Amino acid sequence: MAIEERIPTGSVGSGVRAAPAAAPGWVRGVLLVVESFWRWYRRNWRATAVSSVLQPLLFLLAFGLGFGSLIAARPGAEAATGGVPYLVWLAPALLAMSTVQSAAFEMTYPVLSGFKWQRIYLGMAATPLTGAQIALGHLLWVAAKMTLTGAVYLVLIALFGGAASPGVLGSLAAAVLTGAAVAAPVMAFSASREDEGAAFNALFRFVVLPMTLFSGTFFPVAALPGWVQPMAWASPLWHGTELARAAALGTGTPGAVLGHLAYLSVLLAVGAWLSVRLFTRRLAP
């Protein structure tokens, strides 16, 4: 299976026109886009191993084991983490953080490149695939990739003692949902750009980095000043972190879990809708 459909043609000079390729079904078209990205990734996965696995592992070692050992030495420190070791409390949040960082990167320059530099979207659009299939196929691929790299990271977390229960598997699902909820609106933002991507620097500096630092990843949001806390609550990473910790540690009320799921689902749906509209507009014949 491949993006290109075989088109029967007549012999050279016979005057027989090539028959148009049959349009794939809607779902099959999305899966064809996913397959296209998978084929590339299967040959080039080493190029992304540092950002998707090694960098989160360094966070785990530096904060979970290094900084965590200092916290453990303080009397009563586990009260702030719900009575569990800092590494166990931190691990689900790092899983969510890694998917958010990966999603933000995957949906900035690679998306702009698909329109402007490598123009792989234009190649796909030259087939019977629609702009909506291309957009959703790329988004689905990023979610699949986050699941794959997140599973590898989850194994590393378990090896270093950060998995306290089988509930960490639910943390992976929460992390992937969080990453997708960030990926979709960032994808729409990138699809709207006509320049060289200068705005991406501001996106990483003023959105992704503060979201990483002030979403309850490394310390409870309650430790922040009161006027900062509402900004943390608006962060998708905070919702994802709360979901991931609820799954891993067995905390969280049903109402809170449903609220986090609803927030992330709405963000994902709106971002996907905007991406489909922008891809359809830019790839229109």
Automatic annotation (TrEMBL):
| Main localization, broad class | membrane
User: For this UniProt entry, which segments traverse the membrane?
Assistant: 53-72, 84-105, 120-141, 148-166, 172-191, 203-228, 261-280
Q: Which Pfam families match?
A: ABC2_membrane
Question: PROSITE patterns attached here?
Answer: ABC_TM2
Check the record and name the InterPro entries matching this protein: ABC2_TM, ABC2_TM_bact-type, ABC_2_transport, Nod_factor_ABC_transporter
Domain ABC transmembrane type-2 per the UniProt entry, residue ranges: 47-282
Where in or outside the cell it occurs: the entry states: Cell membrane; Membrane
Membrane topology of this protein: Multi-pass membrane protein
- Which keywords does UniProt give here? Antibiotic resistance, Cell membrane, Membrane, Transmembrane, Transmembrane helix, Transport
Write down the superkingdom of origin: Bacteria
Q: Which family does it belong to?
A: Belongs to the ABC-2 integral membrane protein family.
Q: What is this protein called?
A: Transport permease protein
